[in-house]
TrEMBL record:
Residues 57-237 form the Dihydroorotase catalytic domain. This is Dihydroorotase. One of its GO terms (molecular function) is dihydroorotase activity. PANTHER family: ALLANTOINASE. Keywords: Pyrimidine biosynthesis. The keyword Cytoplasm does not apply. InterPro entries: DHOase, DHOase/Allantoinase_Hydrolase, DHOase_cat, Metal-dep_hydrolase_composite, Metal_Hydrolase. One of its GO terms (biological process) is pyrimidine nucleotide biosynthetic process. It comes from Flavobacterium hydatis (Cytophaga aquatilis).
Length: 418
């Protein structure tokens, strides 16, 4: 592949070309030359797009696809194509398929399914067998096969001793443990944030305490064991402060927040629309502002779409009975630009690669071409026609977005919507 990307503004704080507009010559998957008015002497394909900006390829640390077992929700092939067109050159795949990705053969299966795509897939192995929270899964074998972390998707581990042992065990091979934090006993039968909205609507509430108490416990365990811990998709103001305090103490902890928690609040539930039923639940405006501040001050390391396709029959039902989850790849960038500055968005969509020990390529001559192409300007309203996923359960339908994604260059492939 030979391409020249014309007149692109480079947004990459690690690049010597940061904030400069230049042409980029890419040959055989590598950036050969960056400069102005580069000659096209080898009949390379030229890419010239309106207000073109480029950055390091984006990484999403939490994507569910369904396959194997739930191909009606999403397949790996279509999911990777959706990710590419949404600007992501890499995704971490959650283990919540059927069967659960809890052994070497399952890691191999999803990796083989992802061969040949522009977007790279990095599996997360289940922390416990079948994600049941009883026995530790084959962590070392999965690490050898390519698992980048270990966690049970949206399941909090009740057994504190098992998490303690896991944190100690993975240190032998520099493993990363993911600890979703929500105390199930305190959550009980709750389906929405406990507060004014849930009371008004007559919905059972999930108190902030359910998340915060579990985070405190997990941080105490990390302090005792050492090792690396990632706490995903936090949602409350106090959770941000707890992580901030833990980092100040020197604990090796990272955290993420989902796009929908940065943009939406529990007020969206007033129509009982199950598209807004997610876990953790949408919180208050106070929490949303605290999460945004946590992004800006560096407490929160990364942003995820937490893309989770759900069959329509599990969403089109009573709110109490509907499954949690929203798709989010297609709307992530445009939604984030409505609440955060461009450079912050790019930083938080790329920083996760270093946390998950994934190659992080800067935009420089001689580097691998791992690039996202986008336009930060322009406004639109997210519509069904913008959904590329097989499932349509988007919490962002009808939401104003800013900017647009053109595509990616990665794995010696160009995926661009012109």
């Amino acid at each position: 592949m030979k391409i020249i990307i014309r007149e692109a503004k480079i947004i990459d704080s690690k690049s010597p070309f940061h904030n400069k507009t230049a042409d980029i010559l890419i040959k055989d998957g590598l950036i050969e030359k960056i400069g102005t008015s580069l000659p096209n002497t080898e009949n390379a394909e030229e890419i010239k797009l309106d207000n073109l900006h480029i950055s390091q390829g984006w990484f999403d640390s939490s994507v569910s696809l369904g396959e194997p077992g739930y191909e009606d929700r999403e397949t790996i092939s279509n999911g990777l194509n959706v990710a590419a067109k949404s600007g992501f050159t890499a995704i971490a795949l959650q283990p919540n398929s059927f069967p659960i990705i809890d052994n070497q053969s399952q890691v191999n299966f999803v990796k083989n399914k992802a061969n040949g795509f522009a977007t790279q897939l990095f599996p997360i192995g289940a922390l416990t067998k079948a994600s049941e929270g009883k026995d530790m899964a084959e962590l070392f074998d999965m690490k050898k096969t390519g698992a980048v972390a270990f966690g049970d998707y949206n399941k909090s581990l009740d057994n504190a001793n098992l998490l303690k042992i896991a944190l100690q065990y993975v240190q032998d091979f520099d493993g990363l443990v993911i600890a979703y934090s929500q105390d199930q006993n305190i959550k009980g039968n709750g389906v929405a944030n406990e507060g004014i909205v849930s009371t008004k609507l007559g919905l059972k509430g999930i108190p902030d305490l359910a998340e915060e108490l579990q985070i405190v416990r997990n941080l105490f365990l990390l302090e005792y064991t050492g090792g690396k811990l990632h706490i995903p998709t936090i949602s409350t103001a106090k959770s941000v402060q707890l992580i901030k305090d833990a980092k100040a103490k020197g604990l090796n902890v990272t955290t993420s927040v989902a796009v929908h928690h940065l943009v939406l609040t529990d007020e969206k539930l007033e129509g009982f629309d199950t598209r807004f039923k997610v876990t953790p639940p949408l919180r208050t405006e106070t929490d949303r502002q605290a999460l945004l501040n946590g992004i800006l001050d560096g407490t929160i390391d990364m942003i995820t779409s937490d893309h989770n396709p759900i069959d329509i029959e599990f969403k089109k039902m009573e709110f109490d009975m509907a499954k949690n989850g929203t798709i989010g790849l297609e709307s992530a960038f445009g939604a984030l630009l409505t609440v955060l500055p461009l450079e912050t968005v790019i930083e938080k969509l790329t920083l996760g690669k270093s946390v998950f020990d994934i190659e992080n390529d800067t935009i420089a001559e001689g580097a691998k071409a791992n690039i996202t192409l986008f336009n930060p300007n322009g406004e639109s309203v997210f519509a069904k026609s913008n959904i590329l996923s097989k499932s349509k359960n988007s919490a962002f339908l009808g939401t104003p977005l800013k900017g647009s994604v053109y595509g990616i260059v990665n794995q010696n492939q160009l995926i661009v919507e012109k």
